[in-house]
Design goal:
The structure is a single chain. This protein is an alpha+beta fold and 424 residues long. The chain is built from 12 helices and 17 strands. The strands form 5 sheets. It has an 8-stranded antiparallel beta sheet with strand order 3-2-1-16-15-14-13-12. A 3-stranded mixed beta sheet has the order 8-7-17, with no helix packed on it.
């Protein structure tokens, strides 16, 4: 029966016009209708009120592009408009790409999600946990109650630091500086294994450098440099030819300038620092950041996710693998979740946040139960909404991270009172 159904699906697809062949096969979407005027106005307002120098957005729904819009400047000083082909540094939107690369190897039986990480990287079997401070003010260290697993790495429950908190572990993280661009990926992870854990693995959620460990694991399992492996297995097959850690010099003219907020005004980040990740000398290819991309390129990745792991006949992941990644993996007993609740009523899957309940009030981001998403340090965002057969990509380059941009963009896409399809 399954073989006959598969053949029928192939024949049906072949009979469709070319424009329809990329459409997602799945349940009929809800009646969510996009309002172009409302979205345009939201983008213009973000620039007009000084929250961003430039913004752009792309929406895909029901098998075709439904919206593209941009406002403001990619380079305010040069008066270069934010455009469809503007190259943007996506920072932590790199993480889902790394997760997909690792899960491709999981499909091949190369590791188990609940394997102890020390099985592949012995140094992590000797990392202690901080258990408070002694009378001398120095941290008390002890052995963790259980080993960290690869699942812990992928759901940010490993206990690793990212230098984002005010703890002794974060102080060590900054002192050791594992993610300095002069380190190789192997050196970065060796240094990270010298930083004590924030907590026992599996007991809390805390954003961390765990995805950089995932990248190193990909290297170890394949024997191929991480950047090369991702290009070969994900970026090239999906046609994401303008996405990469290393960018050709000619594309620098299309790179968006970065801006930071100081005393209520946007101030340009020095160009050399802004371009260092993709155009400057570096040894480190991070799993958790570093990709630069265009709206259309990253939408191809999002469309693959919306298409159950396939885009235009190219299979990247099995549907069951993608369902696993997009399913909340956090035990309800994990109540300490650092900043995750600021994203709304969400849990966390494998390298994606996952919406688990309807928005509770007007302050929470709009969205539908079952969507999965992530964002980047310079306020970029993407999400995949299976209930509405929708994928969205939002680009800007502004720090500190501004969640109001995401709130307003989602309200423009869904409508300010949207709670999700009936039955959520």
């Amino acid at each position: 029966m399954q073989r006959r159904d598969a053949i029928a699906a192939i024949l049906l697809t072949a009979a469709l016009p070319a424009s329809a062949r990329a459409r997602r096969i799945g349940p009929v979407a809800t009646s969510l209708a996009l309002n172009r005027t409302r979205i345009d106005a939201a983008l213009r307002r973000m620039v007009a009120d000084g929250r961003a120098a430039g913004v752009s957005a792309l929406l895909w729904q029901h098998g075709s592009e439904r919206y593209f819009g941009a406002a403001g400047h990619a380079d305010r000083e040069a008066r270069r408009a934010m455009a469809r082909d503007t190259l943007v540094q996506i920072y932590s939107m790199t993480k889902p790409v790394t997760g997909v690369a690792l899960m491709q190897l999981w499909e091949q039986g190369r590791f188990g999600l609940d394997d102890p990480l020390e099985q592949y990287m012995p140094a992590f079997g000797m990392v202690p946990v901080i258990a408070g401070k002694g009378p001398d003010g120095k941290p008390i260290l002890r052995a963790p109650k259980r080993p960290m697993t690869i699942r812990d790495l992928m759901r940010h429950t490993a206990g690793l630091s990212y230098g984002m908190r005010d703890t002794a572990a974060d102080a060590d993280f900054h002192a050791i500086d594992p993610l300095a661009l002069g380190n190789s990926l192997a050196e970065a992870i060796d240094k990270l294994a010298r930083v004590p854990l924030l907590f026992d693995p599996g007991s809390e959620w805390s954003y961390s450098a765990a995805v950089d460990v995932q990248a190193r694991l990909v290297e170890q399992l394949t024997g191929v440099p991480f950047e090369e492996h991702v290009r070969r297995m994900i970026l090239d097959p999906l046609g994401m030819h303008e996405t990469g850690w290393t960018q050709p010099p000619a594309r620098r003219a299309r790179l968006a300038a970065s801006y930071t907020k100081q005393a209520g005004a946007l101030v340009r980040v020095p160009d050399a620092r802004n371009a260092a990740l993709n155009f400057g000398p570096r040894r480190l290819t991070m799993g958790g950041a570093g990709l630069a991309s265009t709206l259309d390129d990253y939408m191809r990745f999002a469309r693959m996710l919306l298409g159950h792991g396939t885009l235009n006949g190219v299979r990247i992941l099995a549907p069951s693998t993608l369902r696993l990644m997009a399913t909340n993996q956090l035990d309800p007993r994990i109540v300490r979740r650092f900043f995750l609740p600021s994203k709304g009523s969400v849990g966390f899957g494998l390298d994606f946040a996952v919406r688990t309940a309807r928005p509770r009030d007007a302050r929470e981001n709009r969205g539908a139960v079952g969507e999965f998403f992530w964002d980047g340090a310079e306020s970029t965002l993407f999400w995949v909404d299976p209930a509405n057969d929708l994928a969205a990509v939002f680009f800007t380059q502004v720090t500190p991270f501004d969640g109001t941009l995401h709130h307003d963009f989602r309200a423009a896409v869904y409508g300010p009172d949207y709670l999700g399809p009936p039955g959520d």
